[in-house]
Write a structure and sequence with these properties.
Length: about 375
């Protein structure tokens, strides 16, 4: 019997993108044949490989990470190469990740009549706000927002990462519904950790510091939100641990080296994802505060779910969906701004905070999301027969 075939498109080289990996692995384990068509901007990864049953094909179009001009110039070349490949491939459903590969979904739906899933990890126009490290809505952002909404309206299914928890704040679903996307086509797949991975992982021989340790785990894309961490670490003798790479890593390292040489800080760079739980357990608190863009207000970062799963409290943005999450689950503290005073208050609260991660592990895990993914695909493929 022929397996249903899925092709996913991705604007990074899949090395491994945790959310994409979780979705693809869920489909593979459910009997689907999955191929990821990924953009290798560095030309540093195998053109073809298989990762846990997931077929990966990479398109090599060079572009420097962090360069907007380089990205804009190279993106059409990636589209052209990907489209040529997609027109030749045999598949039943196309699944595009984020807005920068969504035009490929439009083209394949129009040219080949294939069902299209538009998977939105981030509200795309807010990436410019993140680059500016402050809220903004210029002409280019308004144009990108309208374009993204048009794509979402045309897709057969829209997958988003959050919705309201019934508290004060709204998620991605409410944003797209307010902009005119039909609520019936929007499906929520929370970006939660795989319980199997976070309970059984390769243990590293690492000893936790005796100093109170504030950790940041994830891609380092900003700078301003980290400066207060160095200030409070200098003042209180805390240890800082940064786990991950990113375009702003060198800038943050430079600040640590030149402005705060007395602070005990470690930058590990990127580490294999299956080893990540080891690093959470080195921390007394995880820092997950970002410049407050529209995206940040409506998301719950994967590090919030992961740290709560492992019993490590987290500091998040106030006036955001993350505030609702940590308040309802008593697993962290929200701050309005990363000032020294707000951080002092938050850390003192964290030091006496006790919560039971078993509640998180029962509900906020990837295994609870898999049924939504398979049901979306079943309905699309059965409806296409």
């Amino acid at each position: 019997m022929r397996k249903p075939k899925v092709v996913m498109t991705l604007s990074n080289p899949f090395k491994v993108d945790p959310r994409v990996y979780k979705e693809a692995l869920t489909l593979v384990n459910s009997g689907y044949d999955v191929t990821i068509l990924a953009w290798d901007r560095e030309g540093a990864h195998p053109v073809r490989e298989t990762v846990d049953g997931i077929n990966v094909e990479r398109i090599r179009v060079r572009a420097k990470y962090g360069s907007i001009i380089g990205f804009v110039v190279a993106l059409p070349l990636f589209y052209l190469a990907a489209l040529i490949r997609l027109l030749k491939m045999d598949f039943d459903v196309i699944h595009t990740h984020d807005f920068d590969t969504a035009p490929l979904g439009v083209l394949i739906k129009l040219l080949r009549g294939k069902p299209w899933i538009f998977d939105i990890h981030d509200i795309y126009f807010t990436r410019i706000s993140l680059l500016k490290e402050r809220p903004s809505l210029g002409a280019l952002q308004r144009f990108l927002m309208k374009l993204e909404i048009l794509h979402a309206k045309f897709a057969d299914v829209v997958i988003v990462v959050t919705r309201s928890l019934g508290g004060r704040y709204e998620g991605f679903k409410e944003f797209y519904v307010e902009k005119g996307v039909s609520p019936d086509k929007i499906k929520i797949v929370w970006n939660t950790p795989r319980a199997s991975m976070f309970l059984e992982y390769p243990k590293l021989n690492m000893k936790k510091s005796e100093k109170f340790t504030i950790g940041y785990i994830g891609t380092i894309r900003t700078v301003s939100n980290f400066v207060p961490l160095f200030e409070i670490a200098k003042r209180r003798g805390y240890r800082l641990l940064f786990v991950g790479g990113g375009k702003s890593k060198e800038a943050v390292e430079s600040i640590a080296r030149n402005n705060f040489p007395e602070v005990d800080v470690e930058f590990t760079g990127s580490v294999p994802y299956d080893l990540i739980p080891n690093y959470y357990l080195l921390c007394d608190v995880i820092y997950s505060y970002f410049p407050p863009t529209e995206n940040v207000k409506r998301t719950i970062t994967v590090k919030v779910f992961e740290s709560a799963f492992l019993g490590v409290p987290v500091i998040v943005n106030a006036e955001s969906l993350m505030e609702d999450f940590v308040r309802m689950n008593k697993c962290g503290v929200a701050i309005k701004e990363p000032s020294k005073e707000e951080l002092e208050r938050a850390i003192e609260m964290i030091k006496v905070l006790k919560f039971n991660p078993l509640r998180i592990r029962r509900k906020w895990v990837w295994e609870a999301q898999e049924g939504m993914i398979t049901s979306v695909y079943s309905s699309l493929i059965e409806g296409d027969e």
